[in-house]
Design brief:
The chain has 736 residues and is an alpha/beta fold. 45% of the residues lie in helices and 15% in strands. The chain contains 31 helices and 23 strands. Strands 11-12-10-13-14-9-17-18 form an 8-stranded mixed sheet. Helix 11 packs across helix 12 and helix 17 crosses helix 18. The chain is globular and about 80 Å long. It binds a DNA duplex (15 and 10 nucleotides) through helix 5, helix 11, helix 21 and helix 27.
Length: 736
DNA sequence: CTGCCAGAGCTTTTT
DNA sequence: GCTCTGGCAG
């Protein structure tokens, strides 16, 4: 089959496809045919005689990689393209680590821990160190787990991370450091790796064993990295380590869009993509700016969002798809009515678009709750993305725990899991049994077996699995004989659904011959819960929506403190990332883009709806590119003549004594009038010397200090933004 | 020691 | 709303 590159690709794409020697950086704007470009490039390489197994394609998700390889097959017709090496960084790292396990001194591939396992180990460490007894404020294991992961991903010390992200925990600094050290120790004892270890271990493997790097890099002639803007520091170093040492112009192609970098919170560093040309001075820079996805009115809006970016490769997307539909912004009375309006809007859209082609996007998982209720009421099928993953479901993890123990006796979290399915055994007994099993203390184990009937069964199964080498499918069958009755006991309400999930697990397992790869794949690229069951609307976090597109996209909760998230208001960098996130959300839309901002949101604190402000991202959009509507109390929505109307202070806002003019931009000097705060200042901190002085903030501009809170924060009233709690590092005090 | 209850506190995003 | 923790009874 002959591929007509010239006809199928625009000039920029063609250049990206045919430049195969030396480093290339492709800045691929949203919807600019990035996948197409990668696919054609793979095809081109193979046509030129490059062996598929010499090509490495690192993608963000397994799904993306499969999708691309499938499309290559389609373009090339039948081919050996399945042999292209691909996957996520973590998946690829695991496969190399497995291959070279002996070099690093692993008997067999250590088990991979997911987040819950890691937290289990942190819990264990906490007990051992006897930390935080009787202290309600002491951080939870989930907190420390994420701080520690952040510290490793950003390659900052824990102290630095605490300083930046969790200053209120700084008082516990020493304990927390000890806690993390203990975590590392237990992890080692149990022969476990967390996600972060995979990357750092691979780096060690490649940098400390030159012959391994030699062998690996020699086996890869072309490397392509998708979503390069989301790589973190180790990942960038790893890419480099996969090339021949001393090659100034390796065949690397990095593809990405700095405007869509949305994973800084887990260590992604936009500098990687911005500095790629510095890292590889011979790199060719190719920009894909022609957009094939969205209509021009939508692009007018997204370009307007793009204008507010700083520190980015300049770009302007254009399209030749016109449309009479402008993007819309709808201000709703409350979050409840927002949900109702969303459902109503979807019903209307469903006349034109298939349900599969409609998506509702939001900043955080919990925000879709009301919408879910309304959709259910209206009988509209939906499927939520970014929710619990298949392999995260409790029943799946229980079964996998047995398999993990069969591979690694020391896997403590796995023991905990399966032992806790036995009635009468709690964390303490489970731990004792684990220790007894490790030293094979027969007397203790026998005593326990007599006490708990189910324990007998569990231990027998584990022995069977350990002594006989079984295929994953067979092994699961053995486990289910014990586990299915337990399942019915523990989940009387929904065991049928869970049984179906286990059935699916068996199906997946049947396609594997060897246990290690089965377990590795499942914990690294857990399959999306397959439900090809017909048409459904997509509900998704913006993060999970990355790389996807729909005809109609609705974005909800575009209000301050939700989108942008309240956690991102302290730091200009975080704030910029929220804006990129908003950009990602809007660029998912092909034909219709509808933005929702409730004017009030139910608050638990006061048990009543509280007024909220429209998101600054909405205010940044010029009136000319969006049609603004406002829900009317009598029902229905009315068109507003201009965006200014929306910013007029509503009665509730006046009650809250917000400062009046809303159109304040940080640059404008707005003299702040003193005003009583919404909350009363923290007792005891009222008389600090800073009170009453003015200060500047990168995002909110000039504001008046109301009080000093905690050791390092100020409560500051910003005209136009209201009262904010800001870490002292982020404000500049003016001399009184 | 487990399992249950009540009350406190809190809510980002993911490999 | 939901999860986690501490307290308490069996």
């Amino acid at each position: 089959m002959h591929i007509t590159y010239q006809a199928d690709l625009n000039p920029a794409q063609l250049e990206a496809v045919t430049t195969v020697d030396g480093p290339v950086l492709v800045i691929a704007g949203a919807g600019s045919g990035k996948t197409r470009t990668i696919v054609y490039r793979l095809a081109h390489l193979v046509e030129r005689g490059v062996r598929p197994e010499e090509i490495l394609l690192l993608t963000f998700t397994r799904k993306a990689s499969n999708q691309m390889l499938e499309r290559v097959q389609h373009v090339l017709g039948h081919s050996r393209l399945g042999a292209v090496r691909g996957g996520t960084f973590h998946g690829f790292a695991y496969s190399l680590l497995k291959q070279y396990a002996t070099v690093l001194g692993f008997e067999r591939g250590a088990s991979i821990m997911d987040r819950a396992d890691a937290e289990e180990i942190f819990g264990q460490a906490k007990d051992r160190l006897d930390l935080g007894r009787k202290d309600r404020k002491f951080p939870k294991r989930s907190t420390i787990a994420s701080l520690w992961s952040k510290s490793r991903n950003k390659e900052l010390s824990l102290a630095q991370v605490l300083h930046q992200d969790a200053y209120h925990l700084k008082v516990y600094e020493d304990d927390l450091i000890r806690w993390c050290e203990e975590y590392g120790r237990i992890k080692q004892e149990c022969g476990l790796m967390d996600y972060d270890d995979l990357l750092f271990l691979l780096e060690r493997l490649l940098s400390e064993h030159p012959y391994v790097r030699e062998a690996v890099s020699a086996s890869l002639s072309h490397i392509m990295v998708d979503e390069y803007q989301d790589t973190n520091l180790v990942q960038a170093r790893l890419v480099h380590l996969l090339t021949q040492p001393d090659d100034p112009a390796p065949n690397i192609m990095a593809v990405g869009d700095d405007a869509q970098s949305i994973y800084a919170f887990r260590g992604a560093n936009v500098r990687n993509i911005l500095d790629f040309p510095k890292m590889y001075p011979q790199a060719r820079l190719i920009k894909l700016e022609r957009n094939y996805r969205s209509t021009q009115p939508i692009l007018h809006l997204t370009n307007a969002v793009l204008k507010n970016f700083t520190d980015t490769f300049a770009k302007e997307l254009y399209s030749d798809r016109d449309s009479e539909h402008n993007p819309e912004h709808i201000a709703t009375i409350s979050d409840r009515t927002q949900a109702r309006l969303v459902a109503e809007t979807i019903r209307e859209l469903a006349d034109t678009y298939a349900l599969n082609e409609i998506a509702v996007l939001f900043r955080a998982g919990y925000q879709s709750y009301h919408v879910e209720v309304e959709l259910t009421k209206s009988g509209l099928a939906f499927r939520k993305y970014g929710g619990i993953k298949f392999a995260d479901a409790a029943h799946i993890k229980d079964v996998l725990a047995c398999l993990r123990i069969s591979q690694n006796m020391a896997d403590f979290p796995a023991w905990q899991r399966i032992l806790r399915t036995v009635p009468g055994i709690g964390p303490k007994t489970a731990q004792k049994i684990f220790q007894a099993a490790m030293i094979n203390d027969q007397t203790f184990l026998l005593a326990q077996r007599r006490k708990h009937a189910n324990l007998n069964e569990v231990l027998d199964i584990l022995d069977t699995l350990r002594t006989q080498t079984m295929r994953p499918g067979t092994a699961i069958g053995v486990i289910l004989e014990y586990y299915l009755p337990v399942l019915r006991e523990t989940y009387p309400d929904d065991y049928p659904r869970r049984e179906a999930g286990l059935e699916e697990l068996v199906q997946i397992a049947l396609s594997y011959d060897d246990m290690t790869s089965f377990l590795g794949d499942l914990s690294l690229d857990s399959p999306e819960a397959e439900e090809a069951s017909g048409q459904a609307i997509t509900l998704s976090t913006v993060h999970s929506a990355k790389g996807l597109e729909w005809d109609a996209v609705l974005v909800i909760d575009l209000v301050e403190e939700r989108f942008p998230s309240r956690h991102a208001l302290n730091d200009a960098g975080d704030f910029a990332e929220e804006r990129r996130l908003f950009y990602v959300a809007c660029t998912r839309a092909r034909e219709r883009l509808i933005l929702f901002s409730p004017e009030s949101i139910y608050s638990r604190e006061c048990g009543c709806p509280m007024p909220v402000r429209v998101s600054p991202f909405i205010e940044e959009i010029p009136d000319s590119v969006v049609a603004a509507f406002r829900e009317q109390i009598g029902g229905g929505v009315g068109r507003r003549s201009s965006m200014q109307a929306m910013s007029a202070p509503s009665p509730q806002r006046e009650l809250r004594e917000y400062e009046a003019p809303q159109e304040v931009r940080p640059q404008e000097q707005m003299p702040a009038r003193s005003s009583r705060a919404v909350d009363t200042p923290t007792p005891g901190s009222g008389q600090t010397p800073v009170q009453g002085t003015y200060c500047r903030h990168k995002i909110f501009g000039r504001g008046k200090v109301v009080s000093r809170v905690e050791p390092n924060k100020y409560k500051i009233n910003f005209p136009g933004f209201g009262l904010k709690l800001i870490i002292e590092d982020f404000v500049e005090l003016e001399q009184p």
